[in-house]
Amino acid sequence: MRGDERGPLLIILGLVAIWLVFQGLDDNFLSPRNLSNLSVDIVGTGLVAVGVVFVLLIGEIDLSVGSVSGLGGAVFAVLNVNLGVPEWLAVVVAVASGTAVGAVHGFFYARVGVPAFIVTLAGLLAWNGLTLLLLGSSGTVSIDEGGLVASLTSTYFGAAGAAYGLAGLGTTGYLLVSHRNRRRRRDAGTPYRSLSEIWVRTALLAVISFAAAHMLDQFQGLPFALLIFLTVVVASDCFLRRTRYGRRVYALGGGIEAARRAGVGVAGVQIMVFMVSGTLAATGGLIVASELTSASPTTARVAGSGMLLINAIAAVVIGGTSLFGGRGTTWSALLGVLVIESIASGMALLGVQDSVQFMITGAVLLAAVTTDTLSRRAARSYPRR
Q: Is 189 exposed, middle or buried (0-12, 13-18, 19+ CB in 10 A)?
């Protein structure tokens, strides 16, 4: 609270308020079954949202992620079911197709100079059309319900202690990394967190983690899809904060010309960012196909029309990533998608129309962007000393 870290705390408090309201309206909202289903529902959109974080960090936007997601699912289904390609190879090609699409977007943006908005808007239309062409105008490709992709969202680690083990591993890892960072900052003569603050943060993380593990263990255990999502979030966060390329991404968000003068290869980083976005969008499409156990033109049209795109961008912004670039983490995708999917889950339990859900999500998104704008204005008016 002393620094600029109010955002995540406010989001968590808002999420708690949402859960309490829906629990008061329907006792089943916080049931182990519903929370377990919620933990799987967030994965598809969440993976796409993590890719969007990379693009927003450089101050740009990717409007094609919904269509690329549909394309990834369609490529897998056509290769595996229609052409008989082994599942593992079809998965690799599907994810690689997302990477290739991102490289194309990045090339036109970074090398040719076409605005990212136009490039990815064209991609939204073009890749959605390619998806419909692959699947056929009236065909639905059903994937093997017992296959590799279908198992991504149907597999649970029900062994006693699986969820608790993950909670303990995450908490211990956070504590060790925090102590290591504190020691390195202290030795370098830069500001560092106090031991009391580290222990308070670790205690809060432990409470949240073990409470979640307890709820998951009451149903079917730890979902494999959730494990994949958390792994991607942690790995992406480490990449952004601990590697040279990650620091260059933040540098571009702070100012392209300043980053160029500092020796950053701007075009290469920009292309890489769009490749990451495309890769994670295609991966999210495989998760969506896993949940539906099929790929169809109807599903592709829904994805291409923008709902997955809107939810992914809304989740990232609600989670605290700035639309102006240079500020945010992949954890914002996790927090934001929890807010989005919690609203959707609660509305579904109450039987509320989709129109009302859209209005509420829109209001939450507007509030998040307004907060970001006002905080930046306040920072300019009252600089930190």
A: exposed
Q: Report how far residue 344's alpha carbon sits from residue 46's, in angstroms, rounded to the nearest whole number.
A: 14
- Between 32-57 and 266-292, two packed helices, what is the crossing angle to 10 degrees? 160
Can you give the pTM of this predicted structure?
0.90
Q: Which two tokens stand for residue 116?
A: 């990212």
| Among 88, 234, 238, CA closest to 152 | 88
User: Could you give phi then psi for residue 321, rounded to 5 degrees?
Assistant: -75, 130
How many CB atoms are located within 10 Å of the residue 81 CB? 18
Low-confidence ranges of the chain (pLDDT < 50): 1, 3, 300-305, 384-385
Going along the chain from its start, the domains and CATH numbers come out as: 6-158+220-380 (1.10.3470)
Per-residue model confidence (pLDDT) at position 82 = 85
Token pair in block for residue 188: 């370098």
* Rounded Cα distance, 189 and 181, in Å: 12
